[in-house]
Amino acid sequence: MELELELRRSATGPKELRPPGLERRESAPKGWKPRRVLESLKLRRAEISRAAEVVNRVVDHLQRRLQCCQCEFRGTSLLRAGSYYEHVKISAPNEFDVMFTLNIERIQLEEYFDSCAFYFVKLKRNPKGNPLSQFLEGEILSASKMLAQFRKIIKEEIKNIEDTAIALQRKKKGSPAVTLLIKSPMEISVDIILALESKSSWPASTKNGLPIQNWLGVKVRRDLRLQPYYLVPKHAKEGHCFQVSNIDQSENAKMIDRKECLKLMKYLLQQLKKKFENRRELDKFCSYHVKTAFFHICAQDPCDSQWRFKDLEQCFENCVSHFLQCLQTEHLTHYFIPGFNLFSPDKIEKANKEFLLRQIEYERDNGFPVFGEY
């Protein structure tokens, strides 16, 4: 598909802006202090400890319920994921992601209409039986039935958690998460996701994904591909579909300076969504988009010498330029599944991508006023 580059207009007036080209700009953005911004994003140790204690108490209670012998999801393990556990959480420890994983053996995957990332799941015959059999529709495991039962169990069980006020949030369209709002002793949002863990070979669609050979090395990539992958139940028209999910384990000690850029990118999107919270253009953009683009930059710039803290402004500029390029070309390749475009027109409308592109261009060209006075 040919993509046409267009001239954009600034959000503050008729001045024409040069569209972000495929080459990086020579100079970093001026007039702002990235180190001061990062300092403002640091979490206080006392707040972290308090929030983690509250969340762990709730999650441990739910896990005991899921592991009981009467539960359809017995045998689940707890996998804490998300920005807090990856040390890239910003502003406040008020959002947590928790994944309950259920190991499954003897399954067969059938790709959902050449989507690369979505699959029908079939259970192969198991002499010991399978507690998930009750969720079958014909031969296909129903994602919608699994989600409904999982949500029902969580809804019933939070009533039994003492000394903590918890509310079940309304289902988010297209999201596999059961979202809890802990109201006291402090307000915290917890997204709980059920995932099926498979230790078999990764699906064929991931073969050329995880492009870290020049960054972390061939051996690291090979070892990571020996790790389990996860199937997250997602609502599809048929109600059966599962999405392949890979926990981002490609971070290691080499990324300590890189993470500062990721925090700034996440904060940029967060502040823009806050600025335009009464509009709908940014609703479908999330930190996962920023993180995916960031990992592609890490693969393109694999040397630690390219990520020195003294060059923070330029490194951040490179990340911004790459993300703008993804918006402009309407293409953001899934890091693990190269045939899956996170910015395809059927997932995010062109007008919404153009809106975000204009806002980020404006911020970049004006020293990122959305970050505040730093």
**Sheet/helix structural class:** alpha+beta
Secondary-structure arrangement, i.e. CATH architecture of the largest domain: 2-Layer Sandwich
What is the CATH fold-level name of the largest domain? Answer: Beta Polymerase, domain 2
Q: How many strand segments?
A: 13
Estimate what percentage of residues fall within beta strands.
15-25%
Radius of gyration: 22 Å
* CATH first level of the largest domain: Alpha Beta
Tell me the overall shape. globular
What is the distance, rounded to the nearest whole angstrom, between the alpha carbons of the first and last residues?
A: 42 Å
Overall residue-averaged pLDDT value: 83
Q: How many helices does DSSP assign?
A: 8
SSE order: EEHHEEEEEEHEEEHEEHHHH
Q: Helix fraction?
A: 25-40%
Count of the domains? 2
Tell me about the largest β-sheet.
Answer: 9 strands, mixed
Region (Disordered): 1-29
Domain Mab-21-like HhH/H2TH-like: 258-361
Family: Belongs to the mab-21 family.
Organism: Echinops telfairi (Lesser hedgehog tenrec)
Description:
The chain is of the alpha+beta class. The chain has 2 domains: 8-30 and 251-371, Poly(a)-polymerase, middle domain, CATH 1.10.1410; 45-200 and 228-245, Beta Polymerase, domain 2. It has helices spanning 34-41, 45-66, 143-157, 218-224, 258-275, 287-300, 312-329, 350-365; strands spanning 8-9, 16-17, 77-81, 95-103, 107-111, 118-123, 136-137, 140-141, 165-168, 178-184, 188-198, 229-233, 242-245. Helix 5 (258-275) crosses helix 7, helix 6 crosses helix 7 (312-329) and helix 7 (312-329) runs antiparallel to helix 8. The radius of gyration is 22 Å and the shape is globular.
